[in-house]
Known about the structure:
The structure is a single chain. By secondary structure, the protein is of the alpha+beta class. The chain contains five helices and seven strands; from the N terminus they run βββαββαββααα. The chain has three domains: 70 residues, no CATH class; 47 residues, no CATH class; 47 residues. Helix content is 46%, strand content 16%. A three-stranded antiparallel β-sheet has the order 1-2-3. A two-stranded antiparallel ribbon has the order 4-5. Strands 6-7 form a two-stranded antiparallel sheet.
Amino acid sequence: MGGNENSRYSSFPGGVGVGTVYGHRWSYEHFVGPIPDGLELDHLCEIKLCVNPEHLQPVTFEENMRRAGYFKKSDSACRHGHPYTPENIYWSTHKSGKKYRTCKECSKLANERVSKRRAEDPEYRKKLNAEARIRMQKRMERLRQDPAAHEKHRAKARERYHKSKKVASGT
């Protein structure tokens, strides 16, 4: 068992098709039981390399971030001064897997600005569509010039399509 250079958590190879297994997760699941859905493990001892299941507690992502000091004084409000409270935060997951927070008040204000622009300018939607069409044309031109990137793009599109069909059919 060793430490992962990027995260400093204990880890070991999980075998063919499994990837990396984190020691603290394996220890908890082996000695205590499955980690409940929607929860992650918090190191109560604050030592990332620790695998003692007595030092691990399942908590929500938000609670883990709070305990880790993610919400420092400088992070107590968004850049517009709205407080970061559980009631004023949207938690989202980036396609890279990293979670991030968004101020609900700022999102609400941005939506109001867009709605106002749409009401004031009936051509607003057409302008947005024209800009999007130009961006798409440029992207497609780049993909046509690079056959490997184009095939990768098509494979991802097929994957998204099949995934949406499975969701729609409930399988």
